[in-house]
Design a protein that fits this description.
By secondary structure, the chain is of the alpha+beta class. The chain is about 50% helix and about 15% strand. The chain is built from 8 helices and 5 strands, in the order H-H-H-H-H-E-E-H-E-E-E-H-H.
Length: about 230
C-alpha cells in the first residue's frame, strides 16, 4: 500500500513527459505557425488580385527573374497612399462628393456602400476621433462599477435638455469579451472617475474579462515603493 507521507512521489513516466513536452510545443508553435500561414496566405491573395493590374514594366520579377510574394502588398500600399493624398485635395473631395451623390441614387448599392464605409471609418478612425480616457462609472445601478471610455462632452439638445446642472459626458461602456459592442451613456461630469491606465490597457482588461490587469495598477500586487510613501 502506498503511503504518501513516507514514500516519495513517483516521477512521471517517459511517455507522460513526452506528452507534456509535445503539448507545450504545440502551445508555442501553433500561434506562430498560424500567424505566418495567415500572413503568407493574405500576401498571396493580395498578389493575385493586385499584380495582374500592374504593368509588366514595373514588376520586379521582370528584372530579377523570380516572383516575390508580397510585392502586391507594396503596390497596394503605394496606391492607397496616393488615393488618400488625392482625396484630401479639393479636386479629390469634389470627385468623392459627386460619386457619393451618384451612389445615393442606387438603392441596393447605397446600402452596401454606407455599411462598408461605416465599418472602415470605425476600424481605421484617426487618433483625433479616438476615446479620450478610460473611466469608472456606476452602471447598471449604484454600487456596481463598470469600465467605460470617455469619448466627448455631450453637445446640443442632449446636453441642454438633460435634467442635470453639470456638463454631460459621453461614455461608451463596452461588452465582454467583444468591446466593439456596448452602450452609449451620458453621465454628469462628477459621476465619471477617470483612470490613470491607458485606453489600450482598459480594453485589455475588458477583453480578458478582468484577468489581465495593467501593471502596476493590478490590485492583487503590492504597490510600488513611490506609491506606498
Amino acid at each position: 500500500m502506498h503511503d504518501p507521507l513516507i514514500d516519495p512521489p513517483r516521477r512521471p513516466g517517459i511517455l507522460a513527459r513526452l506528452r507534456s513536452s509535445f503539448l507545450t510545443g504545440i502551445v508555442v508553435i501553433a500561434p506562430i505557425g498560424l500567424t505566418i500561414w495567415l500572413l503568407w496566405t493574405l500576401a498571396g491573395w493580395v498578389d493575385g488580385v493586385v499584380l495582374p493590374l500592374v504593368p509588366n514594366t514595373v514588376k520586379p520579377e521582370k528584372y530579377i527573374g523570380i516572383n516575390l510574394r508580397g510585392v502586391g502588398i507594396i503596390f497596394f500600399l503605394l496606391f492607397t497612399i496616393l488615393v488618400g493624398w488625392v482625396a484630401k485635395g479639393l479636386l479629390g473631395r469634389s470627385l468623392l462628393h459627386f460619386a457619393e451623390n451618384l451612389v445615393e441614387q442606387l438603392p441596393f448599392v447605397r446600402s452596401v456602400y454606407n455599411g462598408v464605409k461605416q465599418i472602415a471609418e470605425t476600424v481605421f478612425a484617426q487618433s483625433d476621433r479616438s476615446f479620450e480616457k478610460a473611466c469608472l462609472i456606476e452602471y447598471p445601478r449604484k454600487g456596481i462599477w463598470a469600465i467605460g471610455f470617455v469619448s466627448t462632452e455631450a453637445r446640443g439638445e442632449v446636453n441642454a435638455r438633460a435634467t442635470t446642472m453639470s456638463q454631460l459626458v459621453s461614455v461608451f461602456v463596452p461588452t465582454t469579451p467583444n468591446p466593439t459592442s456596448g452602450f452609449l451613456l451620458f453621465f454628469p461630469r462628477e459621476d465619471v472617475i477617470e483612470l490613470d491606465m491607458s485606453v489600450e490597457d482598459a480594453a485589455k482588461l475588458v477583453i480578458s474579462a478582468g484577468l489581465v490587469y495593467p501593471n502596476p495598477k493590478d490590485p492583487s500586487k503590492a504597490p510600488l515603493p513611490e506609491a506606498a510613501e
